[in-house]
């Protein structure tokens, strides 16, 4: 009787089982690789921030005081008919109104006063520390309070210009419209800058010790360290172009543009394209390519913050890419979520 030969090929069921096992293993490997990458980026960003902190504190010790943060070009005080300021929203404690009037965007900015000290016609021009950034074209900053939006950078002519006004005399509850007009025409109260992008290069070079023989920074070699971490990016207009009312730089080529928001991108007013933007001159970025914010607490303690992997500091627009939550609210709506959860903050002081 002839013997029956056992087939050597896999059956369909066995083949499917093998494919399922391979797919599961591949998924596990991919998840592990993504987790390792995220962990590496986080450690790299923490190293960048710690290097910045040490350099800033050494410089502050030698200067006898901390370095004053520069205004962020996309959230600066300068405004004109051709270069309006970014949209902000008052905090809920201050009424919550959206500052979208012509005077809020283009008239001379005012600091140093509270709304109760200013005639009604000038209140939209007040820049309050508690105002929230509300321009959806810059998701990274959306929802942040003005006092938390600063850079280790110089104040540039295209972003910094305001009037620092004195409080009203004790005999008056607020400045009248006539007094406000007089104060705003007095150049003694103007705080402005004539600096261009090269000022950022000079400031960072000084802070990081590359133009100084200071012993501690020379030992630390902060500039080389940040260069090795690819945290320093220098821009030049002959390598690209200025966007967002000539306030930030972009190469505008290849993967530097997108049809929806990605971390490190902005959408210029009235446009439909998103661009990878860079601070003019020289600036410091985290491992995901978003600028690191630098501010001081009320006790002059250094505060350095990375947006983390989400690329947003306060509000994230979710998969839709559109904000459903007001900038001054933490009660998130739609698919918006709290982006501060993945911020990387090595130095904190909320005082």
Q: Can you tell me about this structure?
A:
With 351 residues, this protein is α+β, with helices and mostly antiparallel strands. Helices cover 25% and strands 16% of the residues. The model is unreliable at 211-215 (pLDDT under 50). The strands form 8 sheets. A 3-stranded antiparallel β-sheet has the order 3-2-5, with no helix packed on it. A 3-stranded mixed β-sheet has the order 4-7-8, with no helix packed on it. Strands 12-14-13 form a 3-stranded antiparallel β-sheet, with no helix packed on it. The chain has 6 helices and 20 strands. The protein starts with 11 loop residues before the first helix and ends with a strand. The chain has a domain at 75-192. Strand 2 and strand 3 (98-99) form a beta hairpin.
Descriptive keywords:
single chain, 351 residues, alpha+beta, 3-stranded antiparallel sheet, 6 helices, 20 strands, 25% helix
Secondary-structure blueprint of this entry?
Blueprint: H1 12-63, E1 70-71, E2 88-89, E3 98-99, H2 102-106, E4 109-111, E5 132-133, E6 150-151, E7 161-164, H3 177-184, E8 190-192, H4 198-207, H5 215-220, H6 222-228, E9 232-234, E10 241-243, E11 248-250, E12 257-258, E13 265-266, E14 274-276, E15 282-284, E16 293-296, E17 302-306, E18 315-316, E19 337-338, E20 344-347
Parallel strand pairs: 4-7
Antiparallel strand pairs: 1-6, 2-3, 2-5, 7-8, 9-15, 10-11, 12-14, 13-14, 16-17, 17-20, 18-19
